[in-house]
């Protein structure tokens, strides 16, 4: 069965406020971390580095952002992993 | 809209949830064996759990006209204890002739360890020897992509496994195509914070289509929503998707997968009239 997504203008109308709300939530979380005591201690935390990398993907117009951000937050897979016998 | 929740842990939910699910159109659920929130001390604890899944919960669901199905296993988290896991696997066959059992599940990986992989393979071996369907749990968060790939590697390397008889659950944007392209069924879990939102699940459906895919709430003892599937139905309606497409995802697909079970007993299609009749029959029974 073919699924027809919303037109771009309709999607923007429908989800603009939700996008605004979630961006504000994210901004507030980053502010919360930033104004907390010992903010410098988390500067090198790899989780923050991943968040920054994910934010870069949001700027990219080439699509597939959700999947690419999932990959940023995923461990690497090695196809030669050692199977149990 | 009538729907099936193909993955929910009703043992952890209150009876009011059954009531609300029935009011929202839920006609059937399937409940996989899972981690209780603590590691159980003995295989006997699992015997009681399997009795709950095959005897107690179906009766509780039936009060609300909901058909209850179950899957049996020791979950991936407790699979780290290999000796206990083997004891539990040995007692599963005693319960495989219970009428509501659909197969072996939810088996899989949690932290992608060697012990988990060993016990996963032993569950698959049991399923192959007893010709059972398989329901698979894929790991959480950063472990999901790697774990899903490892699970698919093990399934593909076992030539007895027919992908059409395996459902890979908790797929998200980065794992859904791995499941579908290898011929498996897949489930999207609508769960706060750590899995899919209803909106993202509908995005995924728009990208991969409606074949061999379904959605579930995985409602359990954590913060979760037993009405997540109706929320996704609302989201599909909000975007103008046709009723036929919605029904395929939330009703026909789970049914098509379950129907392959050895013990499956077909039930009449849920049409409005049939449902009204069965509800009034239940009301009469209660008032008598």
Question: What do you see in this structure?
Answer:
The complex is a heterodimer of chains A (85) and B (288). Chain A contains 3 helices and no strands. Chain A has 85 residues and is mainly α. Chain A has a domain at 8-34 and 45-72. With 288 residues, chain B is an alpha/beta fold. Chain B has one domain (3-265): Metal-dependent hydrolases (TIM Barrel). Helix content of chain B is 45%, strand content 14%. Chain B is built from 10 helices and 8 strands. In chain B, strands 1-2-3-4-5-6-7-8 form an 8-stranded parallel sheet. In chain B, strand 4, helix 4 and strand 5 (133-137) form a beta-alpha-beta unit. In chain B, helix 2 (43-62) crosses helix 3. The longest helix of chain B has 20 residues, at 43-62. The mean pLDDT of chain B is 95. The interface between A and B is medium-sized, with 22 and 34 residues.
Describe the structure using short key phrases.
heterodimer, A: mainly alpha, 3 helices, B: 288 residues, alpha/beta, TIM Barrel, eight-stranded parallel sheet
Spell out the blueprint of helices and strands.
The complex is a heterodimer of chains A (85) and B (288).
Chain A: H1 8-35, H2 46-59, H3 65-72
Chain B: E1 3-5, H1 15-23, E2 26-32, H2 43-62, E3 67-72, H3 82-91, E4 101-108, H4 114-130, E5 133-137, H5 144-157, E6 166-168, H6 176-181, E7 185-189, H7 198-208, E8 213-216, H8 228-238, H9 243-258, H10 272-287
Parallel strand pairs in B: 1-2, 2-3, 3-4, 4-5, 5-6, 6-7, 7-8
Helix pairs in contact in B: 2-3, 3-4, 7-8
């Amino acid at each position: 069965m073919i699924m027809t997504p919303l037109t771009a203008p309709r999607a923007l109308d429908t989800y603009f406020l939700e996008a605004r709300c979630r961006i504000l939530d994210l901004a507030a979380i980053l502010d919360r971390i930033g104004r907390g005591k010992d903010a410098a201690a988390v500067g090198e935390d790899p989780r923050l580095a991943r968040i920054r990398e994910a934010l870069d993907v949001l700027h990219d117009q080439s699509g597939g952002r959700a999947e690419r951000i999932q990959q940023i937050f995923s461990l690497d897979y090695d196809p030669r992993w050692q199977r149990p016998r | 809209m009538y729907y099936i929740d193909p993955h929910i842990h009703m043992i952890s939910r209150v009876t009011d949830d059954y009531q609300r699910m029935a009011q929202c159109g839920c006609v059937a659920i399937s409940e996989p064996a899972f981690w209780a929130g603590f590691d159980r001390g003995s295989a006997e604890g699992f015997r009681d759990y399997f009795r709950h899944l095959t005897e107690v919960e179906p009766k509780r669901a039936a009060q609300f006209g909901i058909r209850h199905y179950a899957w049996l296993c020791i979950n991936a988290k407790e699979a780290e204890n290999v000796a206990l896991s083997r004891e539990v696997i040995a007692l599963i066959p005693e319960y495989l002739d219970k009428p509501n059992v659909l197969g072996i599940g939810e088996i899989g990986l949690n932290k992608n360890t060697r012990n988990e992989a060993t016990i996963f393979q032993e569950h698959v071996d049991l399923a192959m020897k007893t010709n059972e369907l398989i329901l698979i749990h894929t790991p959480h968060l950063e472990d999901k992509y790697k774990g899903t790939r490892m699970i698919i590697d093990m399934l593909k390397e076992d030539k007895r496994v027919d992908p059409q008889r395996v459902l890979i659950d908790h797929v998200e944007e980065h794992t859904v195509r791995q499941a579908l392209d290898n011929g498996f069924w897949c489930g999207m879990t609508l769960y706060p914070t750590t899995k899919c939102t209803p909106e993202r699940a509908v995005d995924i459906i728009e990208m991969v289509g409606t074949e061999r895919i379904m959605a579930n709430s995985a409602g359990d003892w954590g913060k979760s929503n037993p009405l997540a599937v109706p929320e996704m139905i609302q989201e599909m309606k909000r975007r103008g998707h046709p009723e036929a497409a919605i029904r395929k995802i939330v009703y026909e697909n789970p049914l098509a997968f379950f129907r392959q079970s050895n013990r499956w007993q077909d039930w009449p299609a849920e049409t409005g009239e049939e449902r009204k009749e069965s509800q009034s029959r239940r009301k009469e029974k209660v008032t008598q």
